Amino acid sequence: RVRFLHHLVMDYNPISNRIRKLLLPTTTPTPTSSSSSDGVRICSIGGGPGYDHISFCIIAAFLQQIQSDDDDFDDAVVSYERKTVHTQIFDLFDNDWKRIMNLLESCVEPTISRITTEMNSSNNKYQERFSTNNVMIMHHCDVRLGIDDLENRDLHCMLPTADIICLQYVLHENSSSIFPTSMKKQLDAADKSSVRPIGGVVRDLLARAKVGAFMICTDSNNFVWPILKENAAFYGWTYLGDAEKKKGVSFGPTSFVILERHDKPNGVT
């Protein structure tokens, strides 16, 4: 999952390109400033102990590292401040994952910083500041329920500020709840020109996420993508999936949809 997300975000396509812009480091002419830029807010649904968090931390560190090779600042010492990653994980098994998440968090940052430092050890023209503010927080969540349900109260509070929403290997395994029997009957009888219903927390994510938010979905099967795309378009999202990207993503997921919200034509304001 770490590799799939990393390669999907690093892929060259219009939506991934804009996601990477959120993770670009900030620069200052001197390394003396102690102020930190706003971090990227990740909403990781079903993210276990922190798969999505690790991917985004690696990407942010890499983007900081390659900026160090820029020759536009020959006459100055430039401080590159890695964009911080603030990940809130929402999982049905939050209590089981929490201890593992804490252990993982304690080793991720030192490992990434050490590798990046070694990569830049020969370049003494730049002074780099490594982020120590990356953080993961675990919450309870049940994707089978709506966002206004009491079990999803933390997700309800976080969603309006989320920059990137990740659902890796969540939709297919919960498809019986997201597309319950009553809805499947509606799907069979629905007018092909209408938007087929989608349930659980997914509809609320599409309806209530902020304009400018991104959503990344990967899964083992793509049968839910057509209905997801219909609802996404209804709520003002554009999308790109494996069906639209014929060449696929090298070493990335074979089944995916990435989305970007441009408007709220039918969403909750």
Major sheet strand order: 6-4-2-7-8-10-9
N-to-C span: 33 Å
User: Which structural category fits the helices and strands?
Assistant: alpha/beta
Q: Into which percentage range does the β-strand content fall? A: 15-25%
Instruction: Tell me how many strands there are.
Output: 10
Outline, from the CA principal axes?
globular
- What value does the average pLDDT take? 82
- Please give the share of residues in helix: 25-40%
The main sheet comes to:
7 strands, mixed
- Tally of separate helices: 9
Write a brief caption for the model:
This protein has 269 residues and is α/β, with parallel strands linked by helices. It is 37% helix and 18% strand.
List the helices and strands and how they pair.
Blueprint: H1 2-10, H2 14-22, E1 26-28, E2 40-45, H3 51-67, E3 79-81, E4 85-91, H4 94-119, E5 127-129, E6 135-140, H5 153-158, E7 164-168, H6 175-178, H7 181-189, H8 200-208, E8 214-218, H9 225-234, E9 237-241, E10 256-261
Parallel strand pairs: 2-4, 2-7, 3-5, 4-6, 7-8
Antiparallel strand pairs: 1-3, 8-10, 9-10
Helix pairs in contact: 1-3, 3-4
Question: Keywords, please?
Answer:
single chain, 7-stranded mixed beta sheet, 10 strands, 269 residues, alpha/beta, 9 helices, globular, 3-stranded mixed beta sheet
What does the model show?
- Strands 6-4-2-7-8-10-9 form a seven-stranded mixed beta sheet, with helices on both faces.
- The protein contains nine helices and ten strands.
- The protein is 37% helix and 18% strand.
- The chain is globular, with a radius of gyration of 20 Å.
- The chain is of the alpha/beta class and 269 residues long.
- The chain has helices at residues 2-10, 14-22, 51-67, 94-119, 153-158, 175-178, 181-189, 200-208, 225-234, and strands at residues 26-28, 40-45, 79-81, 85-91, 127-129, 135-140, 164-168, 214-218, 237-241, 256-261.
